[in-house]
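Tutorial, part two.
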Amino acid sequence: MCLAIPMKVMEVDGFEARCEAKGVERQVNLFMMQDEALETGDYVMVHVGYAIQKVTPQEAQSAWELFDQVLEAMDK
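Running the prediction step on this input gives:
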């Protein structure tokens, strides 16, 4: 099973970006999205360190709400 995490782009430097999600920052490779214009504040889905898709802030929030529900259910 593959899992992509929504992250907010904090800074773009060529084919790399510093992204943040839930207080955790990571360097993310943008090579797979080289035809997509990304700016600070955009949201991307990140899989194994690569941004694979641009998403809206609403889509990112919805994904995190689902992840939070799964984590909560696992704690029970």
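Helices lie at 57-75. In part three we will examine how such features are distributed along the chain.
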